[in-house]
Specification:
The structure holds 2 protein chains of 2 kinds.
Chain A (H helix, E strand, L loop, with lengths): L11 H28 L2 E3 L6 E3 L3 H7 L2 H33 L5 H7 L8 H11 L8 H6 L10 H29 L3 H9 L4 H12 L1 H26 L11 H11 L3 H25 L9
Antiparallel strand pairs in A: 1-2
Helix pairs in contact in A: 1-12, 2-12, 3-4, 3-7, 3-10, 5-7, 5-10, 7-10, 8-9, 10-12, 11-12
Chain B lengths: L1 H17 L3 E7 L4 H16 L3 E7 L3 H13 L6 E5 L3 H5 L4 E2 L1 H4 L10 H7 L9 E6 L1 E6 H6 L9 H13 L6 E2 L4 H11 L6 H4 L14 H15 L2 E2 L9 H6 L5 E5 L3 H8 L5 E5 L14 E8 L4 H15 L1 H11 L6 H9 L9 H10 L15 H16 L5 H22 L7
Parallel strand pairs in B: 1-2, 1-3, 7-8, 7-9
Antiparallel strand pairs in B: 3-11, 4-11, 5-11, 6-9, 6-10
Helix pairs in contact in B: 2-15, 15-16, 18-19
Classes of the chains: A mainly alpha, B alpha/beta.
């Protein structure tokens, strides 16, 4: 077997090749993160000039703030509902596309398109789609006035957000899951069919267990991404409203930092949110990742 | 030949240097017709003289402009002039990032600014911190055509009359008699000021950073509860209740018959109404039994930022002088509906023979509204992190409109969260005295 050192004759070459990318990550990820952690221990004046070390005061303030916990709770609800739907729906579509049902070929193509649309654009489109007067639910509103009012009713606004998020998550998860399904040897399916397994049984006993690595990957990515990627949608569809019903933590951080000039509070919440996401991902690997068999 | 060109170029450059020419930047946040008017002023300034060149940069909104200014100031890459809106007054006063305009331009007759505009932006020593630019105030707009159709011939002046008119409109089948967005500036600040009610203790913060919000105990609580009840009755509509999705758009389209709005939206309304409806614009309605006090100056003003060399400051001064010229202010007013806030401009308008023209309609009413007898609580708002408070107030009151909690609970929550902001502001600027 070739050892790794034989791939590159010069030991500095791989370092050099990685350097530009590492530089970008350091510059745009590690430096800001370090800054956020640093600021979370200071009370920072917006325009600079005066910053005062306050120890853990910022953490005490944020953790005793009801709004922080409410936004955190909303983030959790969004994470669980939106990410599971964002995996489940592409899974159903992928299984259907894999079965070569009618139109599965064009569907494979069409379902990838939303990947090319930016979050903010999706937000603008969905704001129209779910508009209570001109959107798809307008007829419902005509029949029962006021039943769909995302501008007034927080639950309706939350549903709009989830729908937009799930839609934007379809292409990537669909591609990954479909690739997983297609890599399953046909012979396995045929063998199961010969043993008398119907389509449903084959899905649950053959296909799903064999695409566990792909499912795990999409779930981990969805869970971590749902925490932050909702930002563009919230900013274009609901602005965190009505009545703060769609203010997820990531949006609250933006609002506190940029329109409230509370740099310290925003930095503190960023630090807390990041630790949470790291722990969550670690937990997923520890509890779920271990049980997954990557060998076929 | 070449040498002579070089020599000529060198001479030009030397001449330019000795004249202390400067390229300066001015950041503003407006869009639409107002942005067009601002750009026209920048071009006019650059055309009127050759010494300085101003580059006017639109940032899309007041908030974005401020966010970028903070980042730019920290990176020492900030503009000389920045426009910022009323709510950020105290944040900028204590920022240590701006120089009071009256200090930089001591010889200007600042007293020509009307008292209401001065009070909002001046220090306790009576020095103006910022030069009022696009000043506005709250006015009451009606769609006269629609009101007359419903049998309302007299424009309402009190809330009681507004609601009577709204009931008549509703009875006549009108779907949206009165529209508002429930914005903090409209329903809390301007309402409290003209009814003589305090928003916070210590005269809205003018007397010290230890102020606390009190609006949840004043008559404004009753008014806001009324808005909730009237909405249930179908008399009042919010942004989200309208097809247009926005109160000014709903009014301009004729969907809603009455609104409380900034004088700055007058130009857009008259343009939209042209040939279809008649518009009336008056001072904002009062409750019966309350004496009318002044409304606050809204809109935005221009600040001079620290950390620039003399040439750039000279350029900034020249641009500020240019913007203050009566003919510039008149053109800006005519194009936007913003209110001129210096007495000499009002005189100039009166002398122009155009005083009754529609384009100056908001000027006279706006000034009249801002010139009503003041109280110690109608000078303005000097509260820290106030931009964020405005959002908290909106968030909490929206819950009341949606029926999740009573208006009183909303206001109590908003007060509590607002006080936390004030205490953090006090701690952030520990030991700093109000200028």
């Amino acid at each position: 077997m070739t050892s790794e050192s034989t791939l590159f004759s010069n030991r500095w070459l791989p370092v050099l090749l990685v350097a530009p990318f590492m530089l970008l990550i350091v510059l745009f990820f590690y430096v800001p993160i370090f800054q956020a952690f640093y600021w979370s221990f200071f009370l920072e004046q917006p325009f600079g000039g005066g910053s005062m070390f306050v120890g853990l005061d910022n953490f005490a303030r944020v953790l005793s703030d009801r709004e922080f916990w409410q936004a955190g709770g909303r983030t959790l609800v969004f994470m669980v509902t939106a990410s599971s739907l964002a995996v489940l729906i592409p899974l159903i579509l992928a299984v259907a596309a894999d079965r070569k049902i009618r139109l599965s070929l064009p569907a494979r193509n069409v379902l990838v398109w939303p990947k090319g649309v930016a979050g903010a654009s999706i937000g603008v489109v969905f704001a129209f789609v779910f508009n209570p007067f001109v959107g798809i639910l307008a007829p419902l509103n005509k029949a029962f006035p006021g039943i769909w009012a995302p501008g007034i009713d927080g639950t309706d606004a939350f549903i709009t957000l989830i729908a937009a998020h799930v839609w934007s998550g379809i292409p990537f998860n669909f591609v990954i899951l479909l690739a997983g399904l297609q890599s399953i040897p046909r012979t396995m399916q045929q063998a199961a069919a010969m043993d008398g397994a119907g389509p449903w049984r084959r899905i649950f006993d053959v296909q799903l267990p064999l695409i566990m690595p792909q499912l795990f990957l999409t779930l981990v990515l969805e869970f971590t991404e749902s925490v932050t990627s909702a930002f563009a949608l919230i900013d274009t569809i609901t602005h965190g409203g009505p009545g703060g019903a769609t203010t997820l933590l990531v949006y609250k951080i933006y609002k506190d930092g940029f329109s409230g000039y509370d740099l310290s509070g925003a930095a503190t919440q960023t630090a807390i949110l990041m630790v949470f996401v790291i722990l969550l991902t670690a937990a997923q690997f520890v509890f779920l990742g271990r049980r997954i068999n990557y060998e076929r | 030949m070449k040498i002579s060109i070089l020599a000529a170029a060198a001479a030009v450059m030397a001449g330019a240097c000795s004249a202390q020419a400067a390229n300066i930047e001015f950041w503003y946040g407006n869009t639409g017709p107002v942005e067009t008017a601002i750009k026209a002023q920048c071009d006019a300034f650059n055309a009127a003289q050759t010494q300085h060149k101003v580059t006017c940069v639109g940032q899309g909104s007041y908030e974005v402009s401020m966010q970028k200014a903070i980042a730019a100031y920290r990176a020492k890459n900030h503009p000389v002039l920045i426009q910022f809106f009323d709510a950020g007054t105290l944040d900028l006063m204590l920022s240590n990032a701006v120089v009071p305009v009256q200090e930089i331009l001591p010889d200007v007759k600042w007293n020509s600014y009307i008292a209401g505009a001065r009070a909002y932006y001046e220090t306790s020593g009576g020095k103006l911190f910022a030069q009022p630019y696009n000043a506005s105030t709250l006015l009451f707009y009606t769609n006269k055509t629609e009101l007359e159709k419903a049998g309302v011939t007299q424009t309402p002046t009190t809330w009681e009359e507004v609601i009577d008119a709204a009931r008549k409109l509703k009875a006549a089948g009108h779907a949206c008699p009165f529209v508002t967005d429930g914005d903090t500036w409209r329903v809390l600040e301007q309402f409290s000021a003209r009814h003589g009610l305090p928003i916070a203790s210590r005269h809205n913060g003018y007397d010290g950073l230890d102020a606390e919000y009190v609006f949840n105990t004043t008559f404004v609580a009753k008014h806001l509860q009324n808005l909730v009840d009237w909405r249930k009755e179908g008399l009042v509509r919010l942004n989200a209740d309208t097809k247009a999705g926005n109160y000014t758009a709903a009014f301009n389209a004729g969907e809603c018959a009455m609104m409380e709005g900034s004088s700055g939206s007058y130009a857009a309304s008259t343009k939209a109404f042209d040939g279809k409806y008649q518009i009336t614009v008056n001072m904002a309605p009062m409750y019966k039994g309350y004496e009318r006090h002044n409304t606050l100056v809204g809109g935005a003003s221009i600040y001079v930022m620290k950390g620039h060399d003399q040439a750039e400051v000279d350029g900034a001064k020249a641009f500020l002088d240019f913007l203050r010229k009566p003919e510039q202010q008149m053109a800006f007013t005519a194009a936007t509906g913003y209110v001129p806030v210096t007495n000499d401009v009002l005189d100039a308008i009166n002398k122009s023979g155009d005083a009754k023209a529609a384009k100056y309609a908001t000027a006279a009413i706006g000034i009249e509204s801002m010139n009503q007898p003041p109280t110690a609580d109608s000078r303005g708002i000097r509260l820290g992190f106030y931009v964020q408070f405005r959002e908290i107030f909106m968030e909490e009151t929206q819950k009341a409109y949606a029926g999740q909690q009573t208006m009183q609970v909303s206001l109590d929550n908003a007060k509590k969260r607002g006080d936390e902001l004030l205490r953090r502001f006090e701690q952030t600027y520990k030991g700093v005295k109000l200028p």
